[in-house]
Write a structure and sequence with these properties.
- There is one protein chain.
- This protein is an alpha/beta fold and 289 residues long.
- The chain has a single domain (7-285), classed as Divalent-metal-dependent TIM barrel enzymes (TIM Barrel), CATH 3.20.20.150.
- Helix content is 41%, strand content 13%.
- It has nine helices and eleven strands.
- It has helices spanning 7-17, 39-51, 72-92, 109-126, 150-161, 175-180, 188-201, 235-243, 272-285; strands spanning 22-24, 57-60, 96-99, 102-103, 133-137, 145-146, 169-174, 207-212, 214-215, 226-227, 253-255.
- It is globular and about 50 Å long.
Length: 289
Amino acid sequence: MSITGGLPRAVERARATGCDTLQIFTKSSGQWRARPLPGTEITEFRRLSLELDVRPVMAHASYLINLGTPNDALGSRSRTALVEELDRAEALGLLGVVLHPGSYTTSTEEAGLARIADGIVSVLADRPDQRTMLLLEHTAGQGTNLGHTFEQLGIIITAVDQAATAERIGICLDTCHLLAAGYDLATDATYAATIRQFDQYVGLDRLRAIHLNDSKTPLGSRVDRHTHIGSGHVGLGGFQRLLTDPRMQDLPMVLETPKDRPGKPASIEPDPMDLENLRTLRELIKPRT
């Protein structure tokens, strides 16, 4: 949800839309710097989240952050920015900060994964008393982006675990990214195989959140293009398998599908396509008759 008008307005937009959970950017997703969060805004955000029962809430980190870069200056700036993201999330009482792991650019996959793990360890060590989690988002695998295989996520987490910060790191899966990266949800057998591989390399106990997005591009395309539920290649069957899997029942799930009225961010009036996508998903949860 948009934070136009202040962070508390995002909670109001979520409740007006009928959401039980929420994801926000705590600042502009395309800028390094952020305005300080006023204490009154923090207090109002926390109050509304409890009062309107919209929780847990997650933040998505800035797209500029790249812990996998071989550029020392960009790596340092990325770590500093991530610390700030975690500080803001902690002040707001959020479950976690969702982060794209990073890209290795001109280096190698192995070196990029090592830099990401080192960066996470450094960032979490800077804030040892915080409760906000860092949630690595599984990616579609465009270009040199890392985190598009469960093996890569497992390598990062294993390295971070060895530094005794295990309880602060989790995973956020995205249905569009899963499909684009080559993980099939189309049949009972392929869905089971996908979840089995995730458990093998990462562990289901690490799964903390899910993004529900259909994919404009087909299986294995490695292209990240979100679309409305049931309008893409994931298919209603894929969503139904995930939504009715008992292992997923207590996880927060959020939509990152396109808005019908992106030009009206200041309003708390529900976006028609948000309502439609939520209705479609909730219909899939109902028992078959």
